[in-house]
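Summary of Year 1 activities. Much of the first year was spent building the evaluation harness for sequence design. The harness presents a backbone, in tokenized form, and records the residue chosen at every position. We chose the following record to illustrate the format because it has been used consistently in internal testing since the harness was completed.
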């Protein structure tokens, strides 16, 4: 089914998955090229575009698009890419300021009990995050990460498209990153950055 600009917006606002998938198909590659032009890294560009789509879906009921959906997405990808570059610069400065003793605090081996404690805490947070994923999303994540299945094999096993598998994995990874972000900030504060 062909969607007009307004039908896509209305469909997404109403939670129409088909409209969202159509939007994704129409603009994903184009938006990745824009992001890659800014951040100069294809995988980072894909992650940025996935984040934009993820955020769009999460705020779908409240979106107010007065221009075209394409212009809205281009602006969102541009802004997210710029924010990514700014965060990367800050992160690089923080990483450059770490001394060797700071790296030892981050070591997660048996020689560092503090590292073991961090590892257990992060594993608990990950387990809770995986448990909180929607059923289909969790199943796809577990098949990929724990059983080592490829996206194609998962799609075949579950009777869904590879794009659906990719989208669900991106959603799962974004949510898990979100769960760990506060912990990372506490860790950075603890080691005195």
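For this record, the design step produced the sequence shown next.
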């Amino acid at each position: 089914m062909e969607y007009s600009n307004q039908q896509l917006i209305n469909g997404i606002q109403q939670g129409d998955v088909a409209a969202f998938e159509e939007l994704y198909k129409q603009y994903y590659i184009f938006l990745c090229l824009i992001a890659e032009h800014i951040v100069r890294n294809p995988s980072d560009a894909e992650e940025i575009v996935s984040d934009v789509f993820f955020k769009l879906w999460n705020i779908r009921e409240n979106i107010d698009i007065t221009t075209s959906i394409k212009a809205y997405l281009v602006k969102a990808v541009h802004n997210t890419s710029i924010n990514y570059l700014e965060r990367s610069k800050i992160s690089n400065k923080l990483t450059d300021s770490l001394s060797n003793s700071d790296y030892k605090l981050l070591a997660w081996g048996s020689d560092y009990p503090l590292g073991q404690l961090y590892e257990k805490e992060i594993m608990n947070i990950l387990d809770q995050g995986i448990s909180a994923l929607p059923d289909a999303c969790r199943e796809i994540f577990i098949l990929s990460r724990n059983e080592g299945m490829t996206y194609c094999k998962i799609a075949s096993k579950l009777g869904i498209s590879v794009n659906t598998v990719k989208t669900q994995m991106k959603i799962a990874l974004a949510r898990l990153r979100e769960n760990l972000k506060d912990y990372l900030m506490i860790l950075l504060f603890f080691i005195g950055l």
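Residues 97-111, 188-193 have pLDDT under 50 and may be disordered. Quantitative recovery figures across the full test set are reported in Table 2.
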